[in-house]
Design goal:
Distance between the termini: 23 Å
Number of strands: 3
Radius of gyration: 15 Å
Helix content: 40-55%
Structural class: alpha+beta
Order of helices and strands: HHEHHEEH
CATH class: Mainly Alpha
Number of domains: 1
Strand content: 15-25%
Strand order of the largest sheet: 1-3-2
Shape: elongated
Largest sheet: 3 strands, antiparallel
Amino acid sequence: MSLAEGPAVSLASRLAALGSEPRLRILAELSRGELHVSELARRVGMSRQLLYLHLAKLEEAGFISGVADVAPDGKALKLYSLKEFDLRINMARILQDVS
């Protein structure tokens, strides 16, 4: 899915979501496959509380999706995965967004 087909999110919001090194690390980890929050927090080296803030920005921008799941031991988990996207920026795209 291209971002143009996703939710109506401004180009500026999408770029802001990508304008963070920790968020880029999160995307890199999710490119390897779906992960639950605790494992993702370990891999990117941050608290789950801070990770949830970054995940919210990425989800709002349409780059990732989260779904509730249950572990074999009955513990609730939130699994995140990378959405397919192709973000291309040129002057025509910028003019389209500001019009």
